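Bug #77: duplicate submission created two jobs. Keeping one. Sequence:
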Amino acid sequence: MNAPIVGLGVANPLYRIARDRSIQFAHSLLHEPGKEARTLPALYRMTAVQYRGSVLLTHEDQDVATQDFYQPADHAHQRGPMTSERMAKFAAEGILLAHRACESALLDAGITGDQITHIIVVTCTGFYAPGIDVELIERLGLDPGTQRVQVGFMGCHGAINGLRVARGLLAAEPDAAILMVCVELCSLHYQYGWDPDRVVSNAIFADGAAATVVTTKAGGDDFPQVIATGSHLVENSKAAMSWRIGDTGFEMTLSAEVPGLIERKLRGFIDSWLANHDLTIQDIGGWAAHPGGPRILRSVETSLGLPESALEDAREVLANHGNMSSATMLFILRKFMDTNVPRPWIMLGFGPGLEIEIALIR
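Kept job's structure:
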């Protein structure tokens, strides 16, 4: 069963922060900054992120990052808000961003909320119950009988996991109309102090939401169709990337080994997987590779022998929005749709495991 994407909408926080302001903010959360602080500008430039949105920003200011959630560090052991406070903020702000993305997707699809039969919520940055799915049923006017699924803690490739669920639901119920939303508030998990892995995470992650409507009821074969998905767990790689719940937010560990693992292990999997679908790398018109950072994208290019232009849209999304975890690849698909990038497309993401996830869209 193919899964047609008949609508896709994206939503950013109301305000965003430029890189120079991000550096100033990071400096304020280092107690008695020493030589580490002098490396911040170079580190932030290496991320290639120019702007990032955050639900914590109260307005855009050219001189300071205006927010009141994180207070400047006044002692060496300060770690910021407790996880319970961060989850309360997720509950308050996540629904607003998800709602906007869903409204945009429904409008793009030309259908109303009462036609939706299933809703899938994808997130790895916050949890509560009753959750975003229940609130969306009420706010969007969905039928009370709308069936719900949550895809949680899958990380940056979560959109592929969600589309896999949507495709399975359509196989079981061909008349289904599925609304999937990825909503990530990564800025709620900013970590104080100087831990190299977490400083990199602080520098690159951002907030965003994206939603799709998946159904066969819209008619026509012109819509992008999810044909297949796949997974590959890289052996002996569990220490390379992790995402754990700590007392002061969720703690990301991103090893410097990740780009090398991708460079060495990706090509064999991709060649074999595409061959099973009678395709080669040269047949792919658009590569929606998750921009976990510039080194990740370079590793994909090197491993697959792609020209730099193949990941231009991914780099543009990273520069203008940052890494919005699961929502990011859908931002790239939106660009593909807007500029009529020829299909087939490949969605390609990496997450804790180290896990490679892939989806084929014709």
